Amino acid sequence: MPLYKRKPFSLVEKPKDLKPQELVFQVRFTKEIFRDYSEYLKRINLYRKRVWTCKATGKINLTYEEALVSEKEAAEKIQNFPKELVAPVLREIQFSMLTLRDLANSVAAKLQGPFSEGAVLNGRKDGRLHRCKIVKVPEEVDKTQYEVAWLGSDNKVTGKALLKGEHLTGKKLPFTRAVLKSFIKDSTYRSFPWVLHDSLANEHGISTAPPKELKSKISIQDGLIVSNRKRKRSDHEKNTGEANENGFVHRKGNEKPEAQAVKYPIDDLLVQPSEEDQYLTERPSPCRDFYVPMECVGNLLMVWDFCTSFGRLLNLSPFSLGDFENAICHKDSTPPLIVESYSALLRLLIKDNGDFYMAIENKKRKPKITAITWTEYLCDFVETSCALKLSTHVSTIKRGHYGLLDINVKLEIFRELVTQVLETDIVREKLDEYIEERHALASTRRDEALEEGKKRREEKGRRKAETDVKEIVVEHTLKSAASKHNGLNGVISEKRNEKVIFRQNHSSGNSENERGIIPEKNAKKQKDVNALIEDTNNSSRKALKLMKFDIKEAIETKNTAQRKEYLEREMEKRIVRTNSLGKDRNRNRYWFFRREAKIFVESTDSMQWGYYETKEELDALIGSLNPKGERERALKKQLEKNYNKIILELQKRSKEAAHRIAMEEEAVLRRSTRVRAPPRENPAFAFLKYVNKWKEL
């Protein structure tokens, strides 16, 4: 089995109370069974990490499946190991104290070097090489003659002879060093010393009793050989107690053992309280004053985020989360914001020519959706695409009483509609387009970073060269002054000339660029265009290069800071999906939406929601996260990374609120007692004045 970080890894046991009809999740290559999808996904992600080691070959940085394949291939090669060499190799392995690499080299050298009994070689006879087998090895060191048996084509002995070692030629080993290492690992159950499996040793008549020189270093426990090596004791252990043979320290009296150092970060729930916790701030309680029921907040955020993120595709101008929430809760009538949102989503479904389009075609409805007919199309959608429990509300919508529906019903219809829209070809093509554009922007950003780094290195080299020239001038000046040589002026002038020549070379290059003698930018641009024309085989690569070329044209006249800002802004415009910032200790998720200046908090069951909306609350939240935990460490990193962006949105929101309050107070002060001014509009009813500025005409 593959090793996890070079240590054995145990698989999950099969559930005992598993029912035949129960739906479970099974890992394909380990046959492990999980009831919980999150646990299954966690195990799959672990298997996909490159932290596994092939037990047979020792290859590292593999995925679990790659390690399994490597072990399988190694096992097949081990099965083909020459049978006549198994016993000699096993004798060399038994109780060897060499490292794996040295042991493999030693075995290979002995197989190729001084010939052993039973080895099949080529011997010289009558000026030609013939196959032979070593029958007897000389016992005395001085004698170099071997008794060999000549082998015929059918491996039968045709004769015997005495040959010198120089007349014998060893064949190339029929296996590689890697196969030999795998064979050594597969044949043993421990190393230092290497000990064969008892069954394998008995099969080939190899002794399992350790030699005398190793008896002081090893011992037998439960029928297995173990090492007697002890852990080195520290000075603290020597002063407080003695370590036994297993490495445990016997302490005197009632002294408690010292806690083992923990390597952070670890799982958040395993983090123990410590003195450092006093530096953590108290986590503020999130605000929970939503107008919609708490269990509906998730659907509210999902629908609003989709409508605002893909507003251009839907031809629906953006609106705030507060306006959308107020419009959903409004019961007196159906606000224009709701009408336009439904109309935009239904129009896109019709354009996709899918099931909904076929349904309205069968009813012979006009393809144009208006503020009067939108309820008819909505009823058609609910009847054809929604669950049965939502279809019971069609009669209420047809009577023109959409506002009287429960809030959870309204959001369920919206959620189902958004889900259907996400599956359309139009949205999928747009997402593919966004992904390609994001790849081009990211590639351009990397190129910019590399170019900037190159310029910094060149500038550093130029400054160093100028410094070296100055040091040479000063050094020669001091030497000339000390010796009072008459050629002082000549030396100084010579070095000055070198300095002048160095500066002239740099200035000449700059002047050529200024005069346009070598138009480097135009040449580079022309080179890029030619490269694009030649690369016609791969259309996707060509499209990516064209995108990068257009992006570079757009940022060519901007400085470095403006380029970075432009690339970041364009990346944010092309939203593929909104990801959470991370999770805290209790696995509550944290969300930040670009168009809403709040940090939303979602509970593990998605039934409780809250938010932070001030800078003080954000700072307190960051200060309360414990970096010793894996989840809170990652969340803190994301919050700090996006801190400036979040603070900018929070400050913008607070300024708008302060300005609105100031305007209202000023209007009250200017109001005349004789001429009553018309009352100002209540911001809470701004959603009633919504106008879709991106609507198709």
From TrEMBL:
Residues 22-128 form the WAC domain. Pfam families: DDT, WAC_Acf1_DNA_bd, WHIM1, WSD. Residues 294-355 form the DDT domain. The keyword Isomerase does not apply. The keyword Coiled coil applies. Residues 229-254, 445-467 are annotated as: Disordered. InterPro entries: DDT_dom (IPR018501), DDT_domain (IPR053271), WHIM1_dom (IPR028942), WHIM2_dom (IPR028941), WSTF_Acf1_Cbp146 (IPR013136). Keywords: Coiled coil, Nucleus. Its main location: nucleus. It is found in: Nucleus. One of its GO terms (cellular component) is chromatin. PANTHER family: BROMODOMAIN ADJACENT TO ZINC FINGER DOMAIN, 2A, DDT DOMAIN-CONTAINING PROTEIN DDB_G0282237. This is DDT domain-containing protein.
